[in-house]
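Design a sequence for this backbone.
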């Protein structure tokens, strides 16, 4: 009796499996897999029926049972081979999708940087000369010939124009930093750190073994934006008093190590809700790089970015020019103060 119950149960299970195999026929490219499985389940169910028939005392040809086993074995074997091809096809689709997503992301980032560069150029070459002309016109007025009230208005107007020029230069530089495009990644980051330290009472330590190396523009821009985003997040949200970062090149790898001693946070929740971390992750992924971040409340934050720069390095000889330009900018800042 127990054998008959088990045979009935096996028949039911095989028909249920056959039903789901029929449903899968329309869902995948390789329909032959499911047709083979359907045939196999039908033959298995037929074999169970023959065994059930035998349990009632009837005789069944052993040859028929053997043929059933052979058909089931062939169907399952061929189905497994085709199933392997299906998995290969799915993996190929996934790789193609990932490649397409990276290409789209790269195109978006390039378009973003191109737009930033266009805005920066328009501000610098369009609005900048107008403000400079206004300042020259104001400077042509003889201050000594004005009464006290008009002299105060004149001084305030000149101050406002100076501030507008300074703000214009900062906005233009933030949109498309000329130091990055002219002198490379290491100098660009150094320039951003110097400007950040003048606005915030936070110690920022920066070390690098880069000298005159230049990389592909995508690598330089993305790594620069990543550093800017990390520093900005620390200054705005962490309440830190010290930031340390190092940019090192070894072999084909460009590695950024970043830490702060702020209040810390839950990286996963911040990655989901914002703070620019998801943006950083997307940018690094567009370079096929690695972005790892560790943090916990009260223990600050540590981030690592690794990017393969194979074949993307070129040398320049511009540090001296940058130093001279940097010194001139600092002297101008001191005069404005």
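Sequence:
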């Amino acid at each position: 009796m127990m054998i008959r119950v088990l045979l009935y149960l096996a028949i039911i299970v095989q028909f249920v499996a056959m039903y789901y195999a029929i449903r899968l026929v329309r869902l995948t490219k390789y329909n032959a897999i499911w047709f083979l499985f359907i045939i196999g389940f039908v033959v298995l169910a037929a074999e169970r029926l023959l065994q059930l028939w035998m349990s009632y005392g009837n005789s069944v040809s052993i040859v028929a049972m053997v043929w059933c086993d052979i058909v089931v074995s062939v169907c399952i074997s061929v189905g497994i081979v085709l199933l392997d091809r299906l998995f290969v096809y799915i993996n190929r689709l996934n790789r193609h999708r990932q490649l397409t997503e990276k290409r789209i992301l790269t195109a978006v980032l390039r378009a973003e940087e191109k737009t930033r560069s266009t805005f920066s150029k328009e501000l610098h070459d369009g609005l900048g000369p107008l403000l400079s002309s206004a300042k020259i016109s104001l400077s042509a007025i003889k201050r000594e010939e004005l009464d006290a009230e008009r002299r105060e208005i004149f001084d305030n107007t000149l101050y406002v124009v100076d501030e507008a020029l300074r703000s214009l230069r900062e906005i233009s530089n933030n949109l498309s930093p000329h130091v990055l495009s002219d002198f490379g990644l290491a100098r660009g980051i150094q320039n951003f750190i110097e400007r950040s330290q003048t606005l915030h009472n936070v110690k920022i330590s920066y070390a690098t073994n880069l000298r005159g190396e230049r990389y592909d523009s995508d690598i330089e821009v993305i790594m620069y934006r990543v550093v800017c985003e990390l520093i900005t997040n620390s200054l705005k949200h962490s309440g830190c008093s010290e930031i340390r970062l190092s940019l090192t090149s070894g072999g084909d790898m460009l590695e950024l190590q970043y830490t702060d001693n702020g209040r810390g946070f839950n990286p996963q929740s911040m990655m989901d809700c914002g703070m620019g971390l998801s943006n950083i992750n997307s940018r690094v992924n567009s370079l096929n790089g690695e972005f790892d971040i560790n943090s916990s409340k009260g223990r600050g934050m540590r981030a690592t970015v690794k990017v393969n720069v194979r074949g993307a390095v070129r040398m320049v000889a511009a540090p001296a020019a940058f130093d001279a330009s940097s010194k001139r900018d600092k002297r101008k800042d001191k005069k404005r103060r």
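The first helix runs from residue 2 to 24.
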